[in-house]
From TrEMBL:
This is Beta sliding clamp. One of its GO terms (molecular function) is 3'-5' exonuclease activity. Keywords: Cytoplasm, DNA replication, DNA-binding, DNA-directed DNA polymerase, Nucleotidyltransferase, Transferase. Residues 241-344 form the DNA polymerase III beta sliding clamp C-terminal domain. One of its GO terms (biological process) is DNA strand elongation involved in DNA replication. Residues 1-118 form the DNA polymerase III beta sliding clamp N-terminal domain. Belongs to the beta sliding clamp family. The keyword Nucleotidyltransferase applies. The lineage of its organism: Bacteria, Pseudomonadati, Campylobacterota, Epsilonproteobacteria, Campylobacterales. It comes from Arcobacter nitrofigilis (strain ATCC 33309 / DSM 7299 / CCUG 15893 / LMG 7604 / NCTC 12251 / CI).
C-alpha cells in the first residue's frame, strides 16, 4: 500500500477516529486504525466493537492498492508534528512508514486481515428524519443522560417512535428531558442509543445522511463516511407516567433573566431556592454558610406564594438548550416535581424537598 495525501486532510480524519479506538489495551487490534487503498480510494476504519467509524478519501495521489493497520494514537501524534504539506504513507515489511521531506517514521502493524469487519446487517429500517433534526433533538436531552448507572438502559437516550411523533428521551433519575418531532412516515419502534454514540453523532454529522437501525445497531451513512453503534439492550423506564396531566400554574418567563439571576446566586453553591410571589421572584442560595440572594420585580399573576428548591445545574442545562427568549415554568405546589418547556422540548425536574 502506498499513497500521498495532504497533511490537514489526513490529520482531520485520524483525529475524528480517536473516540472509536480501544484506549485501555494498546496491544489490541482495536487500538489500531485500519487503512486500505482500493482503486485510488483510501478507506479508514476505527472500532472498539461497540462503536465504529469508516471514512473514505478520494483526494490521494500516486496510490498503490494494499492495506495495513497502525496504532491510532501514535499515528495522530506523528501527523500533528508534521508541516502542513503532503505526506507519503506506505507499508514496508510489517511497518507503516510515514515520510515528509527528510523526516521518516515507522510504526509496527498488525495483520490487517484480522481487523474486525464493520459491515452491518443490510436489512435495516430507515429512520426517515433529517440529520439536522436528529442532531438538534438529541443535543437538547444529552445533559440528562446518566453516567455509569447500574441500570444500564439509563446510560443512553431513548428514541421512541410513536404514531404521530418521535420522542427523544433521557433521564438521570433526578430529571426527565424530552424533545419531540412530528412523525411523518416511520413505523412505531423504540431503541436506546448509548451516550458515547449520542455525543459522537453530534460531532460528526451536520449534513444530510441516511439513518437506519435494527434491533442491535444504529447506522448513519454519508457519501464520505459510515458510523455505527451497538444499541443498548434493555427496557427504558415508563417515562410517560412522570409527565403531569395538568399544572396549576404555567408562568412564561424571560430566559435571560433566569440565567442571570441563577448564575448570580450560584457562584459558591449549586442548590438554590426560587420563591414566586404575585409581584416578584426571589433567588437565593441554599448554602448554610454564606448568603447569596437577588430579587426580580415581575408581575406573575398568581394568587399565592410558591417556591422551587433545585440543583441549579438542571435549570441551566435546560436554559442553555432552549431556543426562545421566553420559557415556561409549570408547577402544582412546592416540593413537587416541576416542569420546564421551550417549544418542542421540555424537562421535568425533581425538587430538593425542604421543610415547609
Amino acid at each position: 500500500m502506498r499513497f500521498i495525501i495532504a497533511k490537514n486532510i489526513f490529520e482531520n480524519i485520524i483525529s475524528s477516529m480517536q473516540p472509536f479506538l480501544e484506549k485501555k489495551d494498546s496491544s489490541s487490534i482495536t487500538s489500531h486504525i485500519y487503512l486500505e487503498v482500493i482503486n485510488s480510494k483510501l478507506i479508514l476504519k476505527a472500532t472498539d466493537y461497540e462503536i465504529g467509524l469508516e471514512s473514505y478519501v478520494n483526494d490521494i495521489e500516486e496510490s498503490t492498492d494494499g492495506k495495513g493497520t497502525v496504532n491510532g494514537s501514535n499515528l495522530l501524534g506523528i501527523i500533528k508534528r508534521l508541516k502542513n504539506d503532503k505526506i507519503i504513507v506506505e507499508t514496508i515489511d510489517n511497518n507503516l512508514v510515514i515520510k515528509q521531506s527528510r523526516s521518516t517514521f515507522k510504526l509496527p502493524m498488525y495483520d490487517a486481515n484480522e481487523y474486525p469487519n464493520l459491515i452491518m446487517n443490510t436489512e435495516l429500517n430507515i429512520l426517515n428524519i433529517s440529520t439536522i433534526s436528529l442532531v438538534n433533538s438529541i443535543r437538547k436531552i444529552t445533559p440528562a443522560i446518566d453516567n455509569n448507572n447500574p441500570k444500564f438502559e439509563l446510560n443512553g437516550a431513548l428514541i421512541d417512535i410513536k404514531n404521530s411523533k418521535i420522542n427523544f428521551v433521557a433521564t438521570d433519575t433526578r430529571r426527565l428531558a424530552i424533545s419531540h418531532l412530528q412523525n411523518i412516515s416511520n413505523n412505531e419502534s423504540q431503541f436506546i442509543i448509548p451516550k458515547k454514540a449520542i455525543i459522537e453523532i453530534q460531532k460528526l454529522f451536520l449534513d444530510d445522511a441516511k439513518i437506519a437501525y435494527d434491533d442491535t445497531n444504529l447506522v448513519i451513512e454519508t457519501d464520505n463516511s459510515k458510523f455505527f453503534t451497538k444499541l443498548i439492550n434493555g427496557k427504558f423506564p415508563d417515562y410517560e407516567r412522570i409527565i403531569p396531566n395538568s399544572l396549576k400554574y404555567n408562568l412564561t418567563l424571560p430566559k435571560a433573566m433566569l440565567i442571570d439571576s441563577i448564575k448570580l446566586v450560584t457562584s459558591l453553591f449549586s442548590n438554590i431556592k426560587i420563591t414566586f410571589s404575585p409581584n416578584s421572584m426571589v433567588f437565593e442560595s441554599l448554602d448554610e454558610d454564606t448568603e447569596s440572594k437577588t430579587q426580580i420585580d415581575i408581575d406573575l399573576n398568581i394568587s399565592e406564594n410558591f417556591y422551587l428548591a433545585v440543583n441549579a445545574k438542571y435549570l441551566l442545562d435546560f436554559l442553555s438548550m432552549s431556543n426562545n427568549e421566553n420559557v415556561v415554568v409549570g408547577f402544582n405546589e412546592s416540593n413537587l416535581p416541576f416542569y420546564l418547556e421551550d417549544d418542542k422540548f421540555f424537562t421535568i425536574v425533581m425538587p430538593i424537598v425542604l421543610d415547609k
